[in-house]
Design goal:
The protein is of the alpha/beta class and 328 residues long. The chain has a domain at 222-327. It contains 13 helices and twelve strands. It has helices spanning 17-28, 48-53, 70-80, 100-109, 149-157, 172-177, 189-198, 227-247, 253-258, 261-275, 282-292, 294-297, 300-327, and strands at residues 3-13, 35-41, 60-64, 84-89, 95-96, 120-124, 127-130, 136-139, 146-148, 168-171, 203-206, 212-215. The strands form two sheets. Strands 3-2-1-4-10-6-11-9 form an eight-stranded mixed β-sheet. Strands 5-12-7-8 form a four-stranded mixed β-sheet. Strand 1, helix 1 (17-28) and strand 2 (35-41) form a beta-alpha-beta unit. Helix 7 (189-198) runs parallel beside helix 8, helix 8 (227-247) packs antiparallel against helix 10 (261-275) and helix 10 (261-275) packs parallel to helix 13 (300-327). The radius of gyration is 19 Å and the shape is globular.
Length: 328
């Protein structure tokens, strides 16, 4: 049973006590009154559990996993233990700005313009991208106030929307109804879940202000993944999104999702390559990847993204060099 109006913020974490504490504090500092914060520690070997136990707040629920669930399993654990009507999955290295939940819940709780809340499948916002020291690098792209769920997903995969999973609020029941977080989607399980949940309804709503600070760093799961893994996961996830689009009430949904596949494959390839910038051998790795999967590299999508976001790539490289100098 879920509590009407309550928002569960799920924070899956492992061996990131300092960052996790920052994420937890940001969740507990929300201006929205009825929240539950679930922290699922995936058998950490650092002091995460001890530090979380020191927080005395009845809204905080700590689960200590004795055996590793893995990324997807830990995401799914948070979802299935949520008591809130609404659910937001917060990365343990991300930060919710104080009014994030208050703003994200508005379209679900009251009618906006001519749109009834029942037509809304998910609410999202752009993000502040920051480095590990909290320096803001840029703000991701926004979108129209209302657009069909399929359109938003297609535009996201085309590189024209700037959501991250930490900036997306869905109904808990919808997220569970589509099967939760799927192991077959791998590191794309977040999009596989909220995307299919959103497709159960007509529209997604964009709040036109950054409500989450997303941390870009080489310790992220993305930066440790292989291109081939991500491409394989993306193919499975896309097939499931397509099935949901066929079942939706939007007559154009199937066409929009189907046509987004090539952008998705190119996008995940670029994402992994960008995350390796500054690491030893990253240029060689990029060249090898170009030879292995030219169909994912030499595409109109890649050209558009490099022209649009080339400055961001240079920023990441400069930050990486600075981090390496500091570490040495």
């Amino acid at each position: 049973m879920t509590v009407p109006g309550r928002v569960t913020i799920g924070i899956p974490t492992i061996n990131r006590s300092q960052l996790a504490m920052r994420a937890i504090r940001s969740a507990l500092a929300q201006t929205y009154s009825d929240i539950e914060v679930i922290v699922s520690d995936d058998a950490s070997t650092d002091d995460t559990v001890e530090r979380v136990r020191e927080i005395e707040d009845p809204r905080l629920v700590l689960f200590e996993q004795k055996q590793r669930l893995g990324l997807v399993g830990n995401f799914d654990f948070c979802l299935r233990h949520a008591s809130g009507e609404f659910f937001l999955l917060l990365g343990d290295d991300d930060v919710l700005l104080p009014k994030a939940i208050e703003r994200l819940t508005e379209p679900f709780l009251r009618q906006i313009a001519d749109f009834h809340p029942s037509a809304v499948g998910a609410v999202w916002s752009p993000c502040q991208i920051a480095d590990t020291e909290g320096r803001r690098l840029w703000i991701t792209d926004s979108g129209p106030l209302f657009e069909t769920s399929a359109s938003m997903i297609a535009e996201l995969l085309a590189g024209n929307r700037g959501s991250r999973f930490s900036s997306i609020l869905v109904r808990t029941a919808d997220a569970i109804a589509v099967g939760g977080y799927q192991k077959s989607h791998g590191d794309h399980c977040d999009l596989g879940n909220w995307g299919r949940a959103a497709l159960l309804h007509d529209y997604m709503v964009c709040i036109h202000e950054p409500l989450v600070q997303y941390t870009q760093h080489h310790g992220s799961t993305t930066s440790q993944s292989s291109v081939k893994e991500w491409q394989d996961w993306a193919s499975v996830m896309h097939a499931d999104l397509l099935a949901s689009a066929r079942a939706s009430r939007d007559p154009n949904a199937e066409k929009q999702i189907k046509s987004s596949r090539n952008n998705l494959i190119s996008g995940v390839t670029l994402t992994i390559l960008i995350q390796t910038i500054g690491k030893p051998g990253w240029i060689r790795n990029a060249l090898l990847q170009s030879l292995r999967t030219p169909g994912a590299i030499f595409t109109p999508y890649m050209l558009r993204r490099l022209l649009k976001d080339g400055r961001k790539v240079l920023t990441l490289r400069q930050n990486s060099k600075r981090a390496h100098r500091a570490a040495s």
